[in-house]
Amino acid sequence: MENLSSLLMVRQLLERNENGHVIATCRKPAAATGLINMKNKHPERLSILQLDLTSESTIEETSRTVKEKYGVLHLLINASGILSIPDVLHPETTLSKVQKSSLLLSYEVNAIGPILVIKHMWPLLKAGGGHVTDREFAVVANLSARVGSIGDNGLGGWHSYRSSKAALNQLTKTISVEFARRKEPIVCILLHPGTVDTDLSRPFQRNVSPAKLFTKEYSVQKLLSIIDGVKTSDNGKFFAWDGQEIPW
């Protein structure tokens, strides 16, 4: 199933820069009807490549393809995430419901996969391009979640999801420090999209006020605005959809 927010992110990226090229990845390109329809509208500017976050070999293969066809990346967005799967993965409301399989799957998709993507795409990340003309650094943006903040955790629960996003935060922060020490022209940030009306959040929207439940279009617009305005001093920071920093 396609991530509708990611699909909208691809669309808005294409619309924001008429000369830019977007590379979208998914597990099953042949079944990605939304991306295929978009490809038909932008045949020269959109590429669709196969990538499975749970298979490092597919990440390596995609990085090789990107290098051969395009040579560089100016912006890398890791927008995938997993919260629940019917009969497989459920947010835990109590410690007694924590399962090893749920923890491992959440970590694999929410933390390990995105970091492996950065590892293999790192040599391709170069300054320039993007909606902001002639930017002097590349940008890596990982979609996290406010529930991944340890300092903001006042409710508990959701052990697998919370801890996997906290792991993503720590791994991204660590990478940002390494890039800075190496004087790499790369800025890494983490983004919280808010509570968005998607299949991922729908089973958990009961206690969310209408004012805090965002459309996919609004959330993507806000996140891309943050990416557009990012500065070198933002390297390693964690931002909410409204641009406010979130505590670790």
TrEMBL record:
<dbReference type="GO" id="GO:0005737">
    <property type="term" value="C:cytoplasm"/>
</dbReference>
<dbReference type="InterPro" id="IPR051468">
    <property type="entry name" value="Fungal_SecMetab_SDRs"/>
</dbReference>
<dbReference type="Pfam" id="PF00106">
    <property type="entry name" value="adh_short"/>
</dbReference>
<dbReference type="InterPro" id="IPR002347">
    <property type="entry name" value="SDR_fam"/>
</dbReference>
<dbReference type="GO" id="GO:0016491">
    <property type="term" value="F:oxidoreductase activity"/>
</dbReference>
<dbReference type="InterPro" id="IPR036291">
    <property type="entry name" value="NAD(P)-bd_dom_sf"/>
</dbReference>
<protein>
    <submittedName>
        <fullName>Uncharacterized protein</fullName>
    </submittedName>
</protein>
<dbReference type="GO" id="GO:0009507">
    <property type="term" value="C:chloroplast"/>
</dbReference>
<dbReference type="GO" id="GO:0005739">
    <property type="term" value="C:mitochondrion"/>
</dbReference>
